[in-house]
Amino acid sequence: MCRLCALTSTEPLSPMKAIEALDVMREGHDGSGVGLFLSDLGGPWEELEGAPILSGTFTNEGLKRLDSFMMEIGFMTKYKLSIKTPKTAPPGVPKRDVYLIRAYELPEEWDHLPGDEIRNRLMQVRLQLRQMGEEKQDMIVFSFWPDCIMIKEIGDPMTVAEYLRLDRKELHARIILAQGRQNTNYAINLYACHPFFLQGIATMTNGENTAFVPIREFLSSRGFPGYMGYQSDSEVFTHIMHYMRHFLGLDVAYYKHIITPLQDEVLEKHSNGTFLKHLKRSCRRLIIDGPNCVIGCHPDKRVFMVQDRKKLRPGVVGGRPGLYAFSSELCGLDAMVPDRDKSKDIQPMHLDTVIVGPDRQEVRLCSQMDT
Amino acid sequence: MLADGYISPSSLSLRDLPWQVHWSLDKCTLCGRCTTVCPVHAIELGVFRKRTVDTPLGVSQAPSNVFKVFYGIRQKTDPAYACIGCGMCSMVCPNDAIMAYRSEELDKLRFHINRGGQPRRRGGRRNVPGGILDRIKFIRISMLTDPALDAGRHEFELRTLLGRVLPPEENLRLLKENGWIPPVREIYPLIIGGMSFGALSPTMWEGLQMGVAYLNEELGMPVRMCTGEGGCPPRLLRSRFLKYVILQIASGYFGWDEIIHAIPEMKEDPCAIEIKYGQGAKPGDGGLLMWYKVNKLIAAIRGVPPGVSLPSPPTHQTKYSIEEAVAKMIQSMSMAWGFRVPVYPKISGTSTALAVLNNLTRNPYAAGLAIDGEDGGTGAAYNVSMNHMGHPIASNIRDGYLTLARLGKQNELPLFAGGGIGKNGNLAANAAALIMLGASGVQTGKYIMQATAGCLGSESDRCNVCNIGVCPKGITSQDPRLYRRLDPEKVAERLVDVFVAFDKELKKIVAPLGRSTSLPIGMSDALGIDDAAAAQRLHIAYVV
Questions:
Q1: Which UniProt keywords are present, listed alphabetically (chain B) (predicted)?
Q2: Range of the domain at A216
Q3: In this predicted model, what pLDDT tens digit does every residue of B247-301 receive, in sequence order?
Q4: SS3 B226
Q5: What is the value of pTM for the model shown?
Q6: Same domain for B480 and B414
Q7: Is residue A29 part of a domain?
Q8: Where does a domain end: B118, B142, B173?
Q9: How many domains is chain A partitioned into structurally?
Q10: Do A217 and B168 touch (CB under 8 A)?
Q11: Is B516 close to A182, i.e. CB distance below 8 A?
């Protein structure tokens, strides 16, 4: 079972905070991968309003191909952070030439495009780069989006963090999602590392999603190019959130109603029963059958946590105004926010969605019975 | 064979018959129950001659023959009276003196069972044991990473949807705009397949209806039953129990006059309308109710004269093409109930099923598709249709599901599978396999008859007289002397037993796969089979 932790803070923090929490929970991951998602960034990235940031790993050859491709479609580099690694990688960590985090100016001809079109094009560029990388095995691209950075690598989280020197100032962020992976039934491959990302939405999961195949079939057949990949059964959690937001126009509180709908007899008495019944019916193929705990970040910088219908995975949320943390285990929470009022910790149950907004003033608990 | 008997081409010995009746002289008390109960008059009172040698004591008298007569059971060898192996004789024998046994070699009867140029007709099944469904295993067992669920304690939601489910965007938009959203029924995934009032006896039908009502109203299991082609008793049409009934219309339109006239007086809408274009047991052939079973009651419900055979045409005579049949019929049926009732076609398994399916995807009123595979049973059909026609259900359903998935309509048009589900007793395993191949639910008939009423049919050509109204158990007979043998209350009780047990078994299958929140439709990663070709054909894992 993987271990998850997330932080949302008014002040930018180092990702090491989350890595330390993963290290405390090290019994729960096997070094098959670590993933970081950073958003609401601090430092030099703050001034880059709207500039999409490309995150990925490249071989030297891949970097050249990237540069010529991006030039060709009119993207100019605005700011970059290249993580060069020492000559020898620690045991269990593959050697890569470069980890790239680079912000681009949008091409001039995009200036008058509507927001939706820009968002779709950014995704298309990411997918194109991913495909190019798969052809020659020289690039792996995680995200290409404003105000988002992703770093993924195979290996023990702390070892990888020290090796890549993730404590650097340029990586401070207000929202940090981190996952230490326990490989289950899929190949050890960077695209299978959580968190997963699609158009500003990132989620990570522990546990397994036994309903993966029908969900994958449903999403893949929506005709939306971003619904692809699926090296991990947890990727569908990101895509379901995306589908709900983009295609159905529903808010985070409805996420649980899609993935773990209420039972029919409960819906009969629910104040929003008719709508929820239709939602359940038409989104039947998106019902998950975890054991899963999902932590994710919405494009509007809300961080949330949900559980499967049977709550077969642990998850706890706590903190203080200005800093809240989400974690698989209490010890992870203790590592991130030791000076909190522990009596206010929340362990969301099978009907709950926990949301912390960008103001980071309180933890909001929505029950499926109320929405 | 009598010494002065005439040997004709069709003279057979007992050995040439498929079933031989063994009778014990020592145990028989000559009570006559067996000969009374035999549905095909295969046995009769036999008078036998016996010679014994009488040797008196002493030497004065020579030994002599003594001729005596004794009585017993004689089995007829005329093909028209061949034993069908139903075993009723042994069931009624108070002394275990009689039993029918299957011949160890292939019978010769099959060459003579077409007198008058009439090929063999019978009810029942294909009589082919085995089948692919029993060989499919559930291989994705949840272990440490995703612990298996507790089939006895966790909550399960194992229902399915019958009706066209719109894509989420469209559904929510129409809900907002108060537009027309196709009707959808939330039902139990095991449907009692179409068996008509006529094919089944009144007691059997009543028993099933009572059982269905109990399951729904007392146990909260939304089980549905299809009427088959033959209408529906008028009182049921006007009762609240109609909501548990799927009304079938087929090419004979039998019973529909009665149904249409009852519409204004209906308290409840039916669950759905099934338009039967074909049946798995006799693909490409219409329904058939032979004259033996068309008594006054059946004739009245169907609007026909009594005592005539009722063969439905192989196709709907009012339609000439698929688009017309599907569009016109589905729309007119939908309209009859104000677009409040799902209407879906049922076809025989066929290599052309995808053409029908593709057509349905483009029809906004089509509520699903039921495909009935070759292993289905029937009340009456030509032997050749039953044994040699049709398409297996597994690949038909799988192809259909994968086609829908490619079109992105796998959530829209539910597929229902029928034909041979549970034919070897493994109802839940067969149903789960088909659901994971892509069926939204399954229809079953034969299993229900065997489990709820003790149908004697087997996969080895046993009994099979459903067509001539002499069903020894009273399940498919219209003769009150026979159907009084069947207590509808007991049928209802057994039906409840069957569904409750099925539910437990289904949970025992899905819980170890880690599924409980929804029916695992299309969860093909859980399936495996030890046959590489079959695995490739069905797109499931090959495991040995």
A1: 4Fe-4S, Amino-acid biosynthesis, Glutamate biosynthesis, Iron, Iron-sulfur, Metal-binding
A2: 3-49+147-367
A3: 999 999 999 999 999 999 999 999 999 999 999 999 989 999 999 999 999 999 9
A4: strand
A5: 0.95
A6: yes
A7: yes
A8: B118
A9: 1
A10: no
A11: no
